Amino acid sequence: MLKIGEVAARSGVSIDALRYYERLGLLPKPARTSSGYRLYEARMVDRLAFIKRAQSFGFTLDEIKQMLQLETADPQTCSRVLEMIEHKLEDLDHQYEEIKRLRHELSAYKTECERAIANRQCCPVIEDFVQLPRRVGIGSGKGGRR
Predict the structure, then answer these.
(1) What pTM was computed for the model?
(2) How far apart are CA 3 and CA 128, in angstroms?
């Protein structure tokens, strides 16, 4: 059995995060010593490694909790995990498209900045950012996004 500090040190997860994961149900309630210290099974270090790895792929703590509740070799379990992975891949594809769009816009702004510097003009990017809220109605009380 490991005390919370030992689990934190071995897993690279903070003590606060361990308590948070426990509250969320990602970790089972640990045994307690007579003085109230948490005592975790050594296998919780592996469970925390799983949590960290799943987070690195972009899974939310709720999604990770769902996966942890499926801990069996049942083929239906694998089907459910497959669904979660497919959904995550769709999310990543959407994020990738958004990043490509933003990169394209930033490249255009870079070109505008380089041109402005060469011609000793005001920064068109700053002017555009100042004008943008007015063009879309942000802060005017009329229309705009909500």
Answers:
(1) 0.69
(2) 56
